[in-house]
Amino acid sequence: MPCSSIVSAPSCAFPFRSTSASTSSITPTAILLTKRTWKPRIETASLRKSVVRATVSIEKETPEAERPETFLRGVDEAHSSSSVRARFEKMIREAQDNVCSALEAADGGAQFKEDVWSRPGGGGGISRVLQDGAVWEKAGVNVSVVYGVMPADAYRAAKGAPTDQKPGPVPFFAAGISSVLHPKNPFAPTLHFNYRYFETDAPKDAPGAPRQWWFGGGTDLTPAYIFEEDVKHFHTVQKRACDKFDPTFYPRFKKWCDDYFYIKHRGERRGLGGIFFDDLNDYDQEMLLSFATECANSVIPAYLPIIEKRKDLPFTEHQKAWQQLRRGRYVEFNLVYDRGTTFGLKTGGRIESILVSLPLTARWEYDHKPEEGSEEWKLLDACINPKEWI
């Protein structure tokens, strides 16, 4: 994911808290994802102790009235427009503006709601959500630029693997754009994209170690029904962006995408793939910055032509129900496996920005199996057995 859930794929802009609906409002086959109403709690000594522990790593974001020119004030290199940090922030904020404008135009009326927030430890973000539009059930496009000190377990979550890192606080910088777009029409696919840049300095108990940096990101398509021409178009745009930098990127990052978005407990992928990469620092830093920029700029030409073709197609209740079942898989992956979600939980990211990755509605049916040979079965088969689309 990864707004932005900075570290990885599907979440958005640095955050996560579970939600629940009252049991009286839940049908046997569908659940509406809603926000829990706050209720006062009786404070105990043990609760006070846990709150104190939590504040070590979790900071409440502060709403801001206006967008700042940059979130980098007070950081090393903050005032240098030529630094990688500054140029990456500029890129993701321009990408956010461009994508939001294109989505509003496609919807034909609905507009994004914007929240600007800052983080006491350093940085902030811009969260934008379009909900219940003519085309979009829910569309989130978030950016965040945050920095400070993270606990060691958050560092391990960011790296996605066990590390021999000493268990001391680790100074970090993380910036990213993350978006999940859920259309209403079941023939129009969901899209996720996330591009991020990460730095860590020497941990507080190991001064003198070198600064580490890496890029991550990707764009992937999750349809409920397969239109081969759409999937081929989408993958062709991803390959074109990759080939400008290295002909090995597309096959390597396509496989990485197929492997990353694997729902282990289901034995299937979340969708039909795209590209995904993480911890990328074995190339020139300038080249990788240009590559991430090219990928972010490829989102609109890869996706909007598909939406224009599919957003107004007629559909049945059966087809809508299948879309909801596939969105259930989307929720399962995001809440169980996504690295960005894990990182957001461990660093106290902005809760609403992470939850924006979830659809308004999803559906679970007991032991549901599509009829063999049906269009629904073809989609499931493609998620179980990924193929080469181009």
Number of strands: 12
The span between the termini is 25 Å
Write out the strand line-up for the largest beta sheet, numbering strands in chain order. Answer: 2-3-4-5-6-7-8-11
**What is the oligomer described by this structure?**
single chain
Order of SSEs, N→C?
EHEHEEEHEEEHHEEEHHHHHEH
Q: What is the 3D shape?
A: globular
The residue-averaged pLDDT reads 83
Task: Supply the helix-strand structural class.
Answer: alpha+beta
* Unreliable parts: 1-58
In DSSP terms (H or I, runs of 4 or more residues), the helix count works out at 11
Strand content is 15-25%
Q: What is the percent of helical residues?
A: 25-40%
Overall radius of gyration: 20 Å
User: Major beta sheet, specifics?
Assistant: 8 strands, antiparallel
GO molecular function: coproporphyrinogen oxidase activity
Pathway: Porphyrin-containing compound metabolism; protoporphyrin-IX biosynthesis; protoporphyrinogen-IX from coproporphyrinogen-III (O2 route): step 1/1
Main location: plastid
EC number: 1.3.3.3
Descriptive report:
With 390 residues, this protein is an alpha+beta fold. 36% of the residues lie in helices and 22% in strands. The protein has helices spanning 45-55, 84-107, 152-159, 228-243, 249-260, 285-297, 299-310, 317-336, 339-347, 351-355, 375-384; strands at residues 30-32, 62-64, 113-118, 123-131, 136-150, 170-183, 190-200, 212-222, 262-263, 268-269, 274-280, 361-363. Helix 2 runs parallel beside helix 6. The longest helix has 24 residues, at 84-107. The protein is globular, with a radius of gyration of 20 Å. It is found in: Plastid, Chloroplast. Keywords: Chlorophyll biosynthesis, Chloroplast, Heme biosynthesis, Oxidoreductase, Plastid, Porphyrin biosynthesis, Transit peptide. It catalyses: coproporphyrinogen III + O2 + 2 H(+) = protoporphyrinogen IX + 2 CO2 + 2 H2O.
